[in-house]
């Protein structure tokens, strides 16, 4: 391995270490307490080394959130592909989305800016629309199967997304006084009622 390749590999390793350290700190201390200095201390480098790889903390958060959306997309695809009917597919992807949110709370909070600023200076993440796209496709399939008006698919699927994301957000921000079983039951009932109504 030449000098250039060795330096490139070292640079990539430091970048990975920065992202791993930032995520680990967020899990133990929360996203709000994250700083470039803490990340530098965690990887045992000086702060300028961190700045050599990322412009600022927001750039680090943006990179981590993209990884979160990628992981979510994989889970949604697995859930969707495990079923045959559009109704079962829709239920499965909503359930996978819910499960992902609570198994990966730190990712979800960062991805959607829950209790903190959204990362990436408002830059649109292509991965952001994965769940909404799948909800739309599933809704459209059910509508076509029922012979209903396909023009309603966009509005209806957006309403379902709002309901699901709203329940998760409430649960995450107020989980001390809201039973998790009540919210999951509400979610399941919402999806069943949605399928009947479209």
Automatic annotation (TrEMBL):
UniProt cross-references to Gene3D superfamilies, sorted A to Z: Tetracycline Repressor, domain 2
SUPFAM superfamilies hit by this protein: Homeodomain-like, Tetracyclin repressor-like, C-terminal domain
Tree of life domain: Bacteria
Protein name: TetR family transcriptional regulator
Short name of any one Pfam family annotated for the protein: TetR_C_33
InterPro entries assigned: Homeodomain-like_sf, HTH-type_Tx_Regulator, HTH_TetR, MT1864/Rv1816-like_C, Tet_transcr_reg_TetR-rel_C_sf
Binding region for DNA: 35-54
PANTHER family: ACREF/ENVCD OPERON REPRESSOR-RELATED, ACREF_ENVCD OPERON REPRESSOR-RELATED
Domain HTH tetR-type: 12-72
Range of residues in the leader sequence: none
GO molecular function: DNA binding
Entry keyword Transcription: yes
Keywords: DNA-binding, Transcription, Transcription regulation
């Amino acid at each position: 391995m030449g000098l250039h390749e060795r330096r490139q590999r070292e640079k990539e390793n430091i970048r990975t270490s920065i992202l791993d350290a930032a995520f680990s700190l967020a899990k133990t201390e929360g996203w709000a307490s994250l700083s470039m200095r803490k990340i530098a201390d965690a990887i045992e480098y000086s702060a300028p080394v961190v700045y050599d790889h990322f412009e600022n903390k927001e750039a680090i958060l943006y990179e981590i959130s993209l990884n979160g959306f990628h992981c979510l997309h994989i889970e949604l695809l697995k859930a969707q592909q495990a079923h045959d009917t559009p109704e079962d597919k829709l239920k499965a992807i909503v359930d996978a989305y819910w499960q992902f949110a609570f198994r990966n709370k730190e990712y979800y909070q960062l991805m959607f800016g829950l209790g903190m600023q959204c990362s990436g200076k408002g830059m649109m993440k292509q991965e952001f629309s994965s769940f909404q796209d799948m909800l739309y496709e599933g809704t459209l399939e059910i509508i076509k199967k029922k012979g209903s008006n396909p023009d309603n698919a966009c509005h209806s699927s957006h309403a379902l997304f709002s309901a699901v994301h709203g329940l998760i957000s409430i649960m995450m921000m107020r989980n001390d006084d809201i039973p998790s079983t009540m919210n999951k039951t509400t979610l399941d009932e919402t999806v069943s009622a949605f399928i009947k109504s479209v």
